[in-house]
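Tokens for chain A. Residues wanted.
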């Protein structure tokens, strides 16, 4: 059963009152079994070419993040037998369980994204078009927070050989990070696309609060986050996806001035473009 069908199945059962309590017991067991399998698979993949110590630290981080929503569900379940007849408690239970299950779904999807094989299907992709699609996707959200956006490209076309879906996801994570940084400040986000030697370079800058130098060193590490409710996996995934497409990513930041991400992807030359 896929993650989405699993969650849909949970939703349908939570909306039924019959067999509610027995379902919760089955739910916790099924979630635990599913997550343990995912963690084992991920750590085994991560250990290949990685120091044992790092793999153990990452496994501990995954276990900690997964344990939190499971603990919330279990705590509520402990009160279920005596409070089941209370409609207000049932409503609260249903809402929080679904909230925590969505959190688990996000976590497992992120773990899978990090643990994917480095092999990916690549094709010629025009990077300005990718950025344009993401701007269209996020335009309403930015307008709602009063965020100003400036997009500058120094050429009409920049062709790169990448997996377009992976690069979209990598850039989306960075855009969402920028929106989160400026949404309470009515700030701005600037995007600049240019060429540097044989690379296409994207610079995504925001006027958010910035990141201190000590935290900047670990910003791409899994489970490092300053956001309430954040998983700390978004930027780790972005780095993984960019590197899988033969690119690199870096960051510069200054407190009270903002943050800039630099993403470089290999440009296609005329002959390579014709071949693709």
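Reply:
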């Amino acid at each position: 059963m896929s993650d989405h069908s699993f969650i849909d199945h949970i939703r349908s059962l939570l909306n039924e009152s019959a067999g509610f309590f027995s379902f919760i017991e089955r739910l916790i067991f099924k979630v635990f079994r599913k997550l343990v399998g995912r963690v084992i698979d991920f750590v085994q993949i991560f250990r290949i070419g990685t120091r044992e110590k790092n793999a153990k630290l990452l496994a501990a981080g995954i276990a900690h993040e997964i344990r939190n929503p499971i603990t919330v569900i279990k705590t509520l379940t402990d009160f279920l037998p005596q409070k089941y007849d209370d409609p207000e408690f049932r409503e609260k239970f249903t809402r929080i369980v679904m909230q925590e299950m969505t959190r688990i779904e996000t976590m497992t999807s992120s773990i899978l994204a990090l643990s994917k094989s480095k092999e990916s299907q690549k094709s010629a992709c025009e990077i300005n078009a990718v950025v344009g699609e993401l701007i269209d996707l996020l335009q309403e959200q930015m307008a709602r927070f009063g965020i100003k956006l400036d997009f500058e490209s120094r050429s009409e076309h920049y062709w790169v050989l990448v997996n377009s879906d992976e690069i979209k996801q990598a850039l989306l994570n960075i855009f969402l990070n920028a929106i989160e940084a400026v949404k309470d400040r009515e700030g701005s986000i600037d995007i600049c696309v240019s060429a540097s030697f044989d690379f296409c370079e994207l610079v995504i800058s925001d006027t958010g609060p910035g990141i201190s130098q000590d935290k900047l060193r670990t910003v791409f590490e899994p489970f490092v986050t300053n956001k309430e409710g954040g998983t700390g996996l978004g930027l780790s995934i972005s780095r993984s996806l960019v590197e899988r497409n033969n690119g690199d990513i870096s960051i510069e930041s200054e407190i009270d001035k903002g943050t800039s991400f630099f993403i470089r992807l290999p440009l296609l030359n005329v002959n390579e473009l014709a071949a693709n």
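The longest strand covers residues 188-196. The chain has nine helices and seven strands.
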